[in-house]
Every structure is written in C-alpha cells, then in structure tokens.
Amino acid sequence: MKLSYCNFWQTGKKDTMHIVTFEDRLSYAQKRIGALPFVQAIQAGARLDKSSWMIDCTLATSGRPSIALLSHSFDNNVRTRSTMATIVNSTSNSIPSMQSRYRMNTYLDVPLDGKGKFYLIITLKEGVSKLIASLKIFEAHKVNVVHIESRPSRKEGCYDFLIECNGMKEQCDTIFNMLHSIADRVSVQSFGPERACRDAVPWFPQKIKDLDLFADRILTYGAELDADHPGFKDEVYRQRRKIFADIAHNYRHGQPIPRVEYTEEETKTWATVYRELKQLYPTHACREFNHIFPLLEQNCGYSENAIPQLQDVSEFLRECSGFTVRPVAGLLSSRDFLAGLAFRVFHTTQYIRHSSSPKYTPEPDVCHELLGHVPLFADPEFAQFSQEIGLCSLGAPDEVIQKLATLYWFTVEFGVCQQNGQRKAYGAGLLSSFGELQYCLTDEPKVLPFDPEVTATAEYPITSYQPLYFLAESFHSAKERLRNWALSIPRAFNFRYDPYTQRVELLDNAEILSRFVHDIRNDLHLVENSLKKIDVHTEMDGKDNYER
Fold first, then answer.
1. 180 is in an annotated binding site
2. Helix axes 398-408, 334-342, angle to 10 degrees
3. Is residue 547 annotated as involved in ligand binding?
4. I need a surface site. Which of 66, 282, 437, 486 has the fewest CB within 10 A?
5. What is the band of 363 on the pLDDT scale with cuts at 50, 70, 90?
C-alpha cells in the first residue's frame, strides 16, 4: 500500500518548515514540543516513493500541542480507504482561538451502491485512543468513512470530529448508539443520497504571505518554451528567460523586487510597442487610464527609452490603491492567479516578447503587464473591482473558478465601457495590443451589456481577436453587479479582507462578527462626526456670505 497524497490545513503563525520521514515523525514532533511548549503542524503535503514517506511540514505556535494527519492510500493504482490520525501530547486544557483552528480534509472515492450518506459530529475528550476506538466501530459495521474534519471543541479539553459516511440508515442508528459509550456527545447532522458536490472547501490563502506557497507553481512557459514560440531557437533569449524565471522563483513576500538591467535589444522591442500604443491611448482608452498613464511616466520611469522596474511600479500602486505587484515566471492556474487579486497582489512577468515579433506574444509579457494592466490598478474603483473577483474565488468550487476566470477575461483583460456616449477600452489585452485596440471600437465585433450571469458562461477564443465584448456602464456598476452575482456562489461562510493585517477573516462565529460590527460602528461614528463638521462649516460660510 502506498501513501500518495495528504492535505493538512490550518491558520496560524508560522514557525519553521522541515522535511521529516515517516519513521522519525513522532520523535521529531516530541522533540519540537520539548523545545517549543506549543507546537502544531499546520500544513503538510505528503508524497511517497518506493522507500520512504516524506512530509513537508510547517510548524506553528498555537494553544494546543498536537500533530494530526489524515491520508489517502493507493494499492495497485486503485484508491482504497485509509484514514490515520495521530495526535501528540494533546493534554492542554486551553482552547485555541478561532485564528488557530485547523481543518483536515481527505476524499475517498467509494461507490454508494444504493446506500445513503450520513454525517455525524462526535466530541471526544482524549486524542488518539478514543478516535481510533471510534473509527473501529465504523470498520466493524462495514461503513465507509468518506470524509473527516476536526477542530478544537467549544467544550474545554475536547475535539469535535465531523465524519461523513456511506451506509444504510440502520447502520447509522447502530453506530450512533455505540458511539455514545465513547464520545462525550454524538449528533446526526443529516442522512440522504450522495450530493453532486463535496462540502469540503478547497485550500485558499488566508494571509498575503501564503502567496509564496504557489507563486512558482506555473502552468506553461517560464524558462521553458514551446517549439512554436518565436524565441524557441534563440539560445540568448532562452538564457534571459531563465534569469527572469530564477528571480521569480526565489522571490518571497516582503522582499524588494530585484532590479533588472534590460538589454539594448529588449529595450528596442519595448520602444516599438510603447510608441504605437501611446498614440492610440488618447482616443481609444478609457478616461481613468488616460488620467493615470502620465503619472506613471512622471513617477515610475515609463518611457520608450527604458523598461520600468517592478519595484518602482509596486511602490506607486501601493500609494494609489493598495495594490502591489510580485514577479512570476509564467502563467499561474486561474485559482492561484485570482487568489492573488484577493490580497491586491498582481503577479507580473518581467521578461519581454521576442524581438522578431514585437507585435505578437503567445503569453503575457512585461509589455502586457505594465502597459495593459498596471495603469488601471492605480485607480481605486478598478482596484476594488479586481479585488472583488479575487475574493469571490477564495474557497470557491472548481466550476465557479471557471466562471470567474471567464468574467476576468471579459472585464480585466478584454473589457470595454461606455463614456460620454462612446465605447472605450479598459481591458489589458486591448490596451497592450494596437491591432485589437483599434478593432474593438469598430462595428465588427458583437457588443452586449455586462451581465455576470451571461458573461460567466460565454465562450471566447485565445488566439484571435474577440468576436464578442461586454460593455460596462462604469467600474462602479460592474462591481455592484459582480457583488450581486457572487451571492449565488455556494460557500458555507463569508469573509472580509483586513487591509491592516493583509488577511482574509472568516466570519463564522459570534466573536468575529461582534468585532466586525464594532469596526463598522467606529467608522460610522467617524462619518457622523465628519458630517457634523461639514454642516458647521457650511453654516459659517452661509453666514459670512449673508453679512457681506
């Protein structure tokens, strides 16, 4: 039997990262607990080769010393049931805060054969012994455990376990009665046919530093090029791409973005694109873009003579809208890329298209990023709209991610808007392509009003001009429409982004909601006080005018 994959998720303050093997997992954990009174494994990914089981384990300080693990297993490439939980030194009576809660997920694809699915919540006072005893009850009655989640219970010194099972109702009743002899509390949540989608939430970053965990997980290109890429046979160009890829792979949140000395050939390619696009912007780009572009020339060194440095651009964006950029080696998955937007982080390439083809690039390059995307990320309204798309993606099912990626395509990449009775471009794919920037304002493509419900399911080509565009009345109206559409996303929780800590906070208990309400009240008091001062000044100005 081989252990193939393991998920282990929790929020908490990171301490360090280590690689350990199966044999020394417990002894290592006990050693760490001796050195750090409160140690908890919060994130793990497991891979098993022929000889050893490796765990990539991040440790964190929290209120309870424990290490727990759930796993998948495969036997002859067929998925079989394998659930293991190890809780070390779980003797503390303190209850961890909501920030240090953890959640473990595992999926076991077991056919139902006409059986139903039921959900139990059991509360156990002790760790590993009672959990193992509980699982043996399921095994004895031949009930398949499909999914387990655990968290510290509200009852002091206890854990709650949500157990999802496949079986007959009679089996559920029997197990329910037997668990009462072991658990402090047992409850049946539901019983019914298997649902089409799973209840577990896909992993998502909960603090901005978590973006480091996937920023180098690119899908295509980076240092490697396809055979049809214009620079495939150019060894010098390929070496330059490797330099840019290494910068992105080595970058971590909080570091200054390394400055790049671009070659003369690269700068000439930039100049060709820059000159032609700048001529079109006054008549083809939206009002907000044309307001910000001169500011980039003044503050970030935008010109046809030099390619701007990402660090300068990032600092400018932070001052304007709170957005920042970070280097990336190539294309990220839709889920990972959108997650960055949730934290007002835009993953940006540093390499430039091949000099033999300045008017075409098969991938996003620095021309597309800096000329197409960056200017509007400095606009507060557009920045908020972009972040809304990112926030919608956190913890969303795969089918919703696909819809959000399509929404992103038709707005942030290829969006058009109405201003002063004229159609203007605001999408980065348009603003970085002089051919399509002219085409999108003609009568040739079809143009529909922006409606997230319709836009999210529209089809689009990626190698030709778009036959269809969606017209937004304004960034504000697009944002409000997106918010209304987001209410339909199937999620069991809401959350808010805290710009002070750069975290997303789950609004899933009374304590957090109470703190949220307190913050809103403080803001309302500030608004009320400011309005009173405005009224006083207005009255004084009116009195002065009357006396004159």
1. no
2. 70
3. no
4. 282
5. confident
